[in-house]
Design brief:
CATH architecture of the largest domain: 3-Layer(aba) Sandwich
Strand content: 5-15%
CATH class of the largest domain: Alpha Beta
Strand order of the largest sheet: 3-2-1-4-5-6-7
CATH superfamily of the largest domain: Glycogen Phosphorylase B
Number of helices: 16
Order of helices and strands: EHEHEHEHEHEHEHHEHHEHEHEHEHEHH
Largest sheet: 7 strands, parallel
Shape: globular
Structural class: alpha/beta
Bound molecules: uridine-diphosphate-N-acetylglucosamine, uridine-5'-diphosphate
Helix content: 40-55%
Radius of gyration: 20 Å
């Protein structure tokens, strides 16, 4: 069986790492009967669109997660949405045509997801969407459009939560839908185990931080960064929070560019650092007293690690986190972000129940369903 995974942005490297590992386990357990030892049961190839390209946004993830060099690198780089998606499709389509994979797998909701899904649709191969069925209800977000399109052209839809399954039902999609759990939980559990102890301690010391003694923040969603009023209000909240406890902000390049463009003044009480690689990020997350974020991945990781999170958005695709009391949706007003932070810092810590996210066995389920469908 030949499979092709299409990735391109930071969170997708984490997701595909879980799938790569499950493919390797499947190949090991299904042996090489009838094949030469070098011929795996599943031949899994990787295509990197090049949407993210800085070392700490891409290469460092490949190294830490033990990902192989991509078989195909399109190097499309940054551009406006339409130009970027068009360049990706133009690069992915000939790879699909030349390789003729049985399965194309796309992940999440980025422009790389959309391009992979469109290039694979009507190509004769099975199109599988990992992280299917999530909805924010906000169609002004490019990610919402990317998800909807990917879901509606996919033949197999792997849902991280039961809510996602219900969302698809509401849109009339029930064939090929599977609740598998969240591959990001698989990746997190394995990586935290790998870095527990000395590595985790060393990372904390390198950043000069103490356990439970700081707030970790990430802000990068276009809806927040591309609106001067929203970005200013969020930055002001982080600065005020900095009066209460140290705030560390690994700054996404989009946010840095926009803050410079709008002339948002330097924040004296926020420690702004470059984006950090995945292991460093997990260490910073696990030891934080509080996480403030608009990231889909970081809000879940906070939840999985039992760290309270302020979700700086008006809605979330992950309502389970809010329902379980681990996260608060604050919106973007300065006062509301601060009061959500206050409530979480002073209240009792809720206990996360990761069973709602599949308990860390998502990738294995995905691989065995795909193997059954593509054999
Ligand atoms: C993209 C995804 C978003 C996801 C995020 C993960 C879309 C529509 N958005 O947003 O859903 O949450 O990735 O981080 O696909 N840049 C660099 N170096 C890089 C990559 C980007 O400097 O390695 C800068 C460029 O100025 C670029 C900007 O960041 O224009 C935005 O990058 P882009 O990939 O378009 O969107 P993200 O904001 O990263
Ligand atoms: N991440 C990281 N370093 C950072 C910021 C995020 O390693 O400086 C990781 C984070 O732990 C998670 C993934 O990147 O695994 C989330 O990506 P991001 O927030 O960029 O995108 P989203 O999940 O919102 O699509």
């Amino acid at each position: 069986m030949k499979w092709l995974s299409v990735v391109g942005a930071r969170p997708q490297f984490v997701k595909v790492a879980a799938v790569c590992r499950a493919v390797a386990e499947f190949n090991l357990s299904h042996g090489t009967a009838g094949r030469s030892a070098s011929e795996p049961v599943i031949e899994h190839k990787l295509l990197h669109t090049g949407q993210h390209y800085d070392r700490n946004m891409s290469g460092a993830f490949f190294e830490q997660l033990g990902l192989p060099e991509p078989d195909f690198s399109l190097n499309v780089g940054s551009a406006s949405r339409c130009v970027q998606v068009a360049a990706m499709i133009a690069g992915i389509a000939p790879v699909i045509e030349g390789e003729r994979p049985d399965v194309v797998i796309v992940y999440g909701d980025t422009n790389s997801t959309l391009a992979g899904a469109l290039a694979a649709s009507n190509s004769g191969c099975i199109l599988a969407h990992v992280e299917a069925g999530l909805r924010s209800g906000n169609r002004r977000m490019a990610e919402e459009i990317n998800r909807i399109v990917a879901d509606h052209v996919s033949g197999l839809l792997f849902c991280p939560t039961h809510n996602a399954v219900e969302n698809l039902k509401r849109e009339g999609i029930d064939r090929g839908v599977h609740f598998t759990g969240d591959v990001m939980l698989d990746a997190l559990l394995r990586s935290v185990e790998m870095i527990a102890g000395e590595t985790m301690d060393r990372i904390l010391i390198e950043f000069g931080l103490v356990r439970d003694g700081y707030c970790l923040a990430t802000i990068h969603r276009a809806e927040n960064t591309d609106d001067p009023a929203r970005l200013t209000a969020i930055m002001r909240a982080l600065d005020l929070l900095g009066a209460r406890l140290p705030v560390v902000l690994p700054l996404h390049p989009r946010t840095r560019r926009k803050a410079d463009e709008y002339g948002i003044p330097a924040l004296g009480r926020v420690r702004i650092i470059e984006p950090v690689p995945y292991f460093e990020m997990l260490a910073l997350e696990k030891n934080a007293a509080l996480i403030v974020t608009d990231s889909g991945g970081v809000q879940r990781e906070a939840f999985f690690l039992g760290v309270p999170g302020v979700i700086v958005r008006d809605e979330t695709e992950w309502p389970e986190i809010v329902e379980q009391g681990m996260g608060r949706l604050s919106g973007v007003e300065t006062a509301k972000i601060l009061s959500a932070a206050d409530a979480l810092l002073s209240g009792p810590r809720a206990r996360p129940d990761p069973a709602a996210f599949g308990g860390g066995h998502a990738a294995g389920k995905i691989v065995s369903i795909l193997a059954g469908a593509s054999n």
